[in-house]
């Protein structure tokens, strides 16, 4: 860890501080992708799911995500205090003591894994435990401060939820579940680097070796483009395996082209370079925001097709 | 000279007293913590009930453990009767007691 900053002024924590400790926005996306895996598994395999048990399994995923977020904030509180974007988080703002965040993370990890086991099976529970470990230890404590590929490898942690959702229903992890994993895995680098292009000065100040800090903005923009080129056709593979129908194919195809156009425009811009224009900064930010919408709509298409039964298989597949 | 009303005055540090705001924040947190624990207990209860309701609790399924009960093979369905035999013909004679299994 870097040198700890001065102890912040203590203020009294509210319930919302503890909610913020769980990174609620990430949690929403995690639960949504887990729900996609769960619903698709039930539909594809024809396995009946008790709705209450399904809801409890998703709650376990939410708690697991929150636990990993709390552990991340506990470990990263020193660099969070340095960066403006994260300085208002519960620990650097003085609302929640570090030890409380760690205790909360550890207790919630145990609770979430146990709930998942009760509501589904040990495979889903073990996967949830591993994904918390992956984010809390492998990414946060090891990769984040040691390699510019931190978010590429660390992206695996955020890609597990659909596999967990699938395993909660069937007790196994077939190819379809891993395709959903791969979509999130290859989506993470262009998504996160679009943000870090704008905030690389802060990462540099905090000593975090993000790609724009170590290799510069141009190399980052190229990597973003390459990952997007891989992602767009990959997002169409569910059509080949029968997981996605026409609605999914059109959604993933059209959104993929828009995502690719963003990546090309950002690649051709000077976003992240010293002295880049406001329009170029805005373009990188637009790509970051669109990437969230992209993932949301792609997984929404999976949920829609399998939850409503409006699945129209693409002929020939 | 020892004060009879407060014989230990000055010997102990006064107990820490929280400010009203800190006390109110702590009480609020305690309520949330209590609700979270209650929710957890409810969830464990609900999952247990759902799991039990879909579990075979019949004696033959050996779900419950009893120290007096010897391990037994799960109940098997009676084989189909040979063609032409009625169920009455296949039934054991009235008053026949089952033999004790050899030790």
Summarize the structure.
The complex is a heterodimer of chains A (317) and B (103). Chain A has 317 residues and is an all-alpha fold.
List the helices and strands and how they pair.
The complex is a heterodimer of chains A (317) and B (103).
Chain A lengths: L14 H7 L2 H22 L5 H25 L1 H6 L15 H22 L2 H22 L6 H10 L1 H10 L4 H32 L4 H4 L1 H19 L2 H5 L4 H23 L9 H31 L9
Helix pairs in contact in A: 2-3, 2-8, 2-14, 3-5, 3-6, 3-8, 5-6, 6-7, 6-8, 7-9, 8-9, 9-11, 9-14, 11-13, 13-14
Chain B lengths: L19 H34 L33 H4 L13
What would your notes on this structure say?
The complex is a heterodimer of chains A (317) and B (103). Chain A folds into 2 domains: 1-173, Tetracycline Repressor, domain 2; 174-317, Four Helix Bundle (Hemerythrin (Met), subunit A) (Up-down Bundle). Helices cover 75% and strands 0% of the residues of chain A. Chain A has 14 helices and no strands. The longest helix of chain A has 32 residues, at 175-206. Chain A starts with 14 loop residues before the first helix and ends in a 9-residue tail after the last helix. Chain B is mostly helical and 103 residues long. Chain B has a domain at 17-53. Classes of the chains: A mainly alpha (317), B mainly alpha (103). Chain A binds chain B through residues 12-15, 18, 50, 52-53, 56, 59, 111, 115, 118-119, and chain B through 21-22, 25, 28-29, 32, 40, 43-44, 46-48, 50-51, 54.
């Amino acid at each position: 860890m870097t040198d700890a900053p001065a102890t912040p002024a203590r203020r009294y924590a509210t319930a919302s501080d503890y909610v913020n400790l769980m990174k609620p926005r990430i949690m929403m996306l995690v639960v949504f992708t887990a729900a996609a895996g769960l619903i698709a598994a039930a539909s594809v395999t024809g396995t009946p799911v008790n709705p209450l048990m399904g809801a409890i399994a998703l709650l376990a995923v939410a708690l697991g995500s929150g636990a990993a977020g709390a552990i991340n904030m506990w470990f990263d509180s020193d660099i969070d205090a340095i960066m403006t974007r994260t300085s208002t988080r519960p620990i650097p703002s003085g609302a929640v003591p570090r030890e409380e965040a760690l205790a909360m993370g550890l207790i919630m990890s145990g609770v979430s894994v146990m709930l998942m086991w009760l509501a589904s099976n040990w495979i889903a529970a073990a996967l949830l435990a591993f994904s918390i470990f992956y984010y809390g230890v492998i990414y946060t404590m090891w990769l984040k401060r040691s390699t510019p590929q931190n978010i590429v490898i660390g992206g695996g942690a955020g890609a597990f939820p659909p596999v967990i959702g699938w395993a909660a229903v069937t007790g196994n992890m077939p190819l379809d579940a891993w395709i959903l994993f791969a979509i999130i895995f290859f989506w993470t680098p262009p998504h996160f680097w679009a943000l870090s292009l704008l905030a690389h000065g802060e990462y540099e100040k905090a000593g975090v070796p993000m790609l724009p800090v170590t290799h510069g903005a141009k190399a980052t923009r190229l990597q973003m483009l390459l990952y997007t080129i891989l992602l767009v056709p990959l997002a169409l593979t569910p059509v080949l395996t029968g997981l996605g129908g026409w609605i999914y194919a059109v959604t993933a195809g059209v959104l993929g082209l828009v995502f690719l156009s963003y990546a090309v425009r950002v690649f051709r811009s000077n976003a992240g370079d010293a002295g880049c224009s406001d329009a170029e900064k805005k373009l990188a930010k637009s790509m970051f925001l669109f990437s969230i919408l992209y993932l949301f709509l792609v997984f929404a298409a999976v949920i829609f097709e399998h939850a409503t039964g409006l699945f129209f298989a693409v002929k020939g597949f | 000279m020892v004060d009879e009303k407060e014989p230990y005055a000055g010997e102990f540090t006064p107990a820490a007293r929280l400010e009203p705001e800190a006390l109110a924040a702590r009480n609020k947190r305690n309520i949330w913590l209590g609700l979270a624990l209650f929710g957890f207990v409810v969830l464990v209860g609900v999952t247990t009930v759902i799991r039990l309701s879909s579990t075979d609790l019949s004696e033959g399924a050996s779900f419950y453990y009893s120290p007096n009960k010897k391990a037994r093979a799960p109940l098997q369905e009676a084989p189909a009767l040979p063609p032409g035999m009625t169920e009455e013909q296949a039934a054991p004679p009235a008053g026949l007691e089952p033999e004790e299994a050899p030790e």
